Amino acid sequence: MIRFILVLLIGYVMQSGLNAQQIQASLYLGRKDPKPWWIEYSPKDRGMVTVGPMSKASSRYIGLYKYDEQFNRQWYKQVFEQNGKMRVDHVAVLGDNIVVFVEEELPKEEQLVLWVYQFDLKGNQLSNRKEVNRGSRQKKERMELNYSLSQNKKRLLCFQKSGKKGEKETLRFFVFDEKFKAPDEGGIELPWAAEKFVIKSVKVDNRGDVFVLGRVEDSGGEQSPFRHYIYLYNSAQKDAVEIPLDFQNHIVTDLSFRVDKEGNILLGGYFSKTSPGSVGGVFYQKIDGATLKVAVENYEKLPESFLSRYLSQKQLEKGKELNDFYLDKIIPRSDGGVLLIGEQYYMTTNSYRDVYGFWYTQTFHHYDDVIVTSISGTGQVEWNSVLYKRQVSESPEQLSYFDVVTGENLFFFYEYREKESGINVYYQTIGMNGEASKRVPMFPEYRPGDTFYRVYCEQINNQEAILVYFQKRKKVFTIVRAGFQ
Hints:
Layout: H1 2-15, E1 23-29, E2 38-42, E3 47-53, E4 61-67, E5 73-81, E6 86-94, E7 97-106, E8 111-120, E9 130-136, E10 146-149, E11 155-161, E12 168-177, E13 184-193, E14 197-204, E15 210-217, E16 226-234, E17 239-245, E18 251-259, E19 265-272, E20 278-279, E21 281-287, E22 294-301, H2 304-307, H3 313-317, E23 322-323, E24 325-332, E25 338-353, E26 359-375, E27 381-387, E28 391-393, E29 402-405, E30 409-418, E31 422-431, E32 440-441, E33 451-452, E34 458-459, E35 464-471, E36 476-483
Antiparallel strand pairs: 1-36, 2-3, 3-4, 4-5, 6-7, 7-8, 8-9, 10-11, 11-12, 12-13, 14-15, 15-16, 16-17, 18-19, 19-21, 20-23, 21-22, 24-25, 25-26, 26-27, 26-28, 29-30, 30-31, 31-32, 33-35, 34-35, 35-36
């Protein structure tokens, strides 16, 4: 049965314009197999790790499964026995180490404990579980731990916000390397009250330095209602520096950042001339990693030819801008430039009364067009491209997209209902000239009720990605490693 499904998938992919060589490894979990809760790629041996119940009938025993390069199962181990108060909080593969973070409630002590279980790639448990974090289990005082992986996937940042209302915002964190010995612990006390400072992003670079991007309401009378800062914690010096961000009085509506291989900070985002809720242009900054000064900077309004796709001529004449577009990510290019990827998102509600006279309100999530902007190494906008789509549901889990960036193309995968072809996971590409391809169906026999797990999907290098989906009728959970050009 597995061989038949694989042949069918390869044949369908060939008909879709891809080729058989692109399917490099496949795993099919059938009706009797439990679905995993967590999927992680293992860069060291090109294998895969999953965590989830060890039985289809019960989730009492939680297990760790290891697969080789061809996604054949090598071994499995029990991680813990469920007592009703434990849950998997995070899983990561760092070099030869597989680490599973498990949160446990201790009702008598009124505390929440985070344990870590450590295994090597051969299945040996390297030590007994270790306590990583402990705090109050009360909802008002509970402080969640967050995780961020470095770009080379060799350092794992675990951080926690601990500022309370009226107190300064503080971050406590520790960084594990691929040897997963004692972590490098640190912290930053920000000079702002917790309720006024909004943390936008926290990242760790390949060296173990920690970056915090955030904003605070501006009371200085400038045009922009916010001031933005980056706080850089140097892991070698055990100290943090503040980097004020100056956007030349533009109203920054959304932004993101990346740290390149040389330690430079690449900032990109959207700005407006009218209000914080609209988008009228894009900007780019490159902050030199050595001097922490701006080396490249540019702001460009979106051209009228682009805005006219969404706005009428009268709206353009009145200076109307785009609404509901949010920046998802900034992707460094090998030539020093960047790609900005954003998506249109908004919510609507619908109230109705049933036959018994009770009123109900539905909330719908809308994930629509994707905008891609290419910016050169000198900060000039080269092109803007759009992928047109309309996705709406009360449950947003299957909405939005998964992207793969190769040397020559961007691939976008998303579930969509095409009028002629029906529902499927479709893909489109955008070339380095900004030209978008037509929408093409990806999977065979994809039916209503099937699930595309984009949150499990992962790009693992410049040519490969892992794609995951579930066929409801056949009860087959599929994981594929595919190659792209």
